[in-house]
Specification:
alpha+beta, Enolase-like, domain 1, 2 domains, three-stranded antiparallel β-sheet, 6 helices
């Protein structure tokens, strides 16, 4: 299904947080739990460089915690919050060589299983499968009111096919839009380059 993922290569959100406070000693990090429902959680993180920062840097993350394991669901919730902070820090340029943080990659491994094998929280054999990413993306796209040009670009990307990472980023982007968030666009999400 994909390449082997070595978690040791990825910085933790905590390591990025340390770098943030070294660079912005008067900064602040705020996280918001925007959605919590069975099998789905969405977090937004905002980074303020100082108390008067009018335009905080944002990061979004979602997860699909297991419904049948309370301890694993709590861990997924904590990892999701850390992943949102890690994304915001990456958006601020504090990612290092690899954009995703370790907490985000833990989710990837859990959801798809290491090296394409069934992960510990994959649906049981014989259970109704989770909708494929393209189907989830099309369903989200159908729910949203988007400008025609943006919708056309996203639909074109879906027709071309997406890597796992691109599908994940597009799903997070669409979920954030559905939650009513203001999105800072990055290259790869809807085909345009980042704006600052």
């Amino acid at each position: 299904m994909g390449r082997s993922i070595d978690l040791r290569r990825y910085a933790t959100a905590e390591q990025r947080i340390d770098a943030f406070y070294q660079r912005f000693p008067d900064g602040a990090i705020q996280t918001d739990l925007l959605r919590l429902e069975p099998g789905f959680v969405l977090f937004r993180a905002r980074l303020y460089r100082d108390r008067t920062d009018p335009a905080p840097t944002t990061g979004w993350a979602y997860d699909r915690p297991p419904a049948d394991d309370a301890a694993a669901a709590r861990q997924a919730l904590a990892n999701c919050e850390a992943a949102a902070v890690g994304r915001a820090l990456a958006n601020l340029g504090l990612a290092g060589p690899l954009r995703p943080c370790r907490e985000e990659m833990v989710k990837v491994l859990r959801l798809r299983g290491a090296d394409g094998e069934r992960g510990p929280h994959a649906p049981p054999v014989g259970a109704a499968p989770t909708a494929p990413p393209a189907q989830r993306l099309r369903a989200l796209l159908a729910e949203l009111r988007l400008p025609a040009e943006r919708r056309r670009r996203i639909e074109a990307r879906l027709r071309q096919g997406l890597t796992d990472r691109d599908a994940h980023e597009l799903e997070a982007y669409l979920l954030a839009l559905r939650a009513g968030g203001r999105i800072r666009r990055r290259a790869g999400v809807d085909g345009r380059h980042a704006r600052r």
